[in-house]
């Protein structure tokens, strides 16, 4: 805002702080809950101050898991989630960036058809095509495997449009200068296009990493072997203890741990991420 | 270094019209050729066909003895300077200069030598390690020139390289481009729509109109003997006066005045008379063969005055030295060799 009115500023800040509190409070409760012994919840009142069981709860979840709920140690599941999110993010970016390159810079037959075929994949997220996809993956013997976890989710070029827009903003003269400088298509792609889309790639990576990390339905469906469980899909299992009340302190510890990697990715790539979203100069 | 030969070159854009028609030019080794013409006349198209960025619909383009119609731009041994410079934004100036050489597999030591040499010539040594966005427009322009120089090409191709600079910088860069080209002795084709730039830079000018050549010649030839009314109006500032006149019985009549002019025989009927504002000389009295200008208004440009008026109902401009008094009426005289006669229909030169 260009205007500088003290009371308006104060109002803005008030609204922002309120927003942050509303968003942050549940996270705070989860964090606090994860530091108490299981007995702390039997009274029905959720404690608001940290307890002393933090180390015990977290190391229990990381190391041995919750056998009553059939949940393996979190460490393994976090690794699974990490593999899944990384493969999906890099795979989707690789596919999108190359298909955008083909669509923007090459004149080939059926170019329009290819473009619209990609467009159609936008309308078919996993949830829509989940039954046929499951059938295909099962027939290919990819249940309970990393390939089964990732390939069906990679197979859509949703980000192609983003890269197409990015490439279209690169002036024709730059392409022509590169042509005169003797850069063939692949060299042009590697030396000019990729560096120029660097910030966009970073922004997209953050978004897709979180997309992959937060996958719930698909991993739940195709993993029956505990060694391929992912964190987010398993939280439900943790809360579903069969014979006793859920151990909220441990569930919350798992929730906090599941939240950590995406937060780290966002914080770590924040500068590039924001630049990728707002930068227009080419 | 090489000559460039265009032989009946034509370009038809798919879905568009005929952008260039039947252009034949022989550019000598080391020559500075300027393509000039109004917007949309096909200058860039022609240049881009030489560069290989546009396919050639008809005719042939040869660089040296080699016909290059189907040769890739990188293999044509040319370098191009673009209007918006087209520097790679993510590379430093040094990398920008070196990129083309690197792609050709030039040894690193040789690249370094050429980059340093170009940097010295263009005085861009101080910002070799900066990115283009940290440079001013003039500096970017120099870097773009540098990128062309390091390749040591057979020909430079310029597409309005100065039009993004302010007037003063344009003037000094113009001089520098000229000096540099002479010093390197590299053949150059330069596209501009600015007739002054064209006049000052060119060894030879090519005036284009609607995708066709109107005239080829040295700047002075084009200025002194414009081949058509189009060229006459386009080259020179202020533009040449073009007014209707009559030829009857071997004498020229304009605005009711008979003008002495050795006319080629066989001319009769209406013609277009061209006379440059600077070729009109004021006379004290209306005498035989003197034109009478009814003055409308005067523009003072400092060094000279532009007098606007009418002769026999037709608008006419004449330049006078500063301080020359102007009344309502001005008697003007022009030497016979300063009068140009053009065909009324086709606009072709008659004399
Ligand atoms: N890619 C294209 N497809 C179709 N027509 C085109 C294309 N490029 C240029 N033209 C047309 O060809 C003609 C010549 O264009 P060109 O760019 O060569 O003009 P120019 O002389 O360089 O003009 P300017 O001084 O404005 O740059 C114009 O009528 C233009 O509309
Ligand atoms: Mg042009």
TrEMBL record, chain A:
Keywords carried by this UniProt record: Cell inner membrane, Cell membrane, Membrane, Transmembrane, Transmembrane helix, Transport
CDD domains: TM_PBP2 (cd06261)
UniProt GO cellular component terms: plasma membrane
Subcellular localization, as worded in the UniProt entry: Cell inner membrane; Cell membrane
Domain annotation ABC transmembrane type-1: ranges: 78-269
GO biological process entries: transmembrane transport
Domain of life: Bacteria
UniProt-listed InterPro entries: MetI-like, MetI-like_sf
Membrane topology term: Multi-pass membrane protein
Family, per entry: Belongs to the binding-protein-dependent transport system permease family.
Record-linked NCBIfam families: PRK10973.1
Quaternary structure, from the entry: The complex is composed of two ATP-binding proteins (UgpC), two transmembrane proteins (UgpA and UgpE) and a solute-binding protein (UgpB).
Protein name: sn-glycerol-3-phosphate transport system permease protein UgpE
Gene this protein is translated from: ugpE
From TrEMBL, chain B:
SUPFAM superfamilies in UniProt: MOP-like, P-loop containing nucleoside triphosphate hydrolases
Domain ABC transporter: 4-235
GO BP annotation list: carbohydrate transport; glycerol-3-phosphate transmembrane transport; glycerophosphodiester transmembrane transport
Record keyword Ligase present: no
PROSITE patterns named among the record's database cross-references: ABC_TRANSPORTER_1, ABC_TRANSPORTER_2
NCBIfam families: PRK11650.1
Family: Belongs to the ABC transporter superfamily.
This protein's name: Carbohydrate ABC transporter ATP-binding protein, CUT1 family
